[in-house]
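Lab channel / #folding
Pinned by the channel admin:
"Please post every new chain as: sequence first, then the structure tokens as a reply. Keep commentary short and put observations after the output so the thread stays searchable."

First post following the new format, from NK:
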Amino acid sequence: MLLYVKNKTAFEEFKNGKEKSLNFLVGKIMKETRKLVSLEKS
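Reply from TO:
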């Protein structure tokens, strides 16, 4: 339940267009992408 509340809050912030949340989200996606790319290379 707590996780749901956290996700909902993050989504609300994202929806409100807060710069920080957007950058955080993009950063997370970039990090995951880099992980996948390095896995494919090896």
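NK: The two ends are 38 Å apart (CA to CA).
TO: also worth noting, The CA atoms of residues 20 and 27 lie 10 Å apart.
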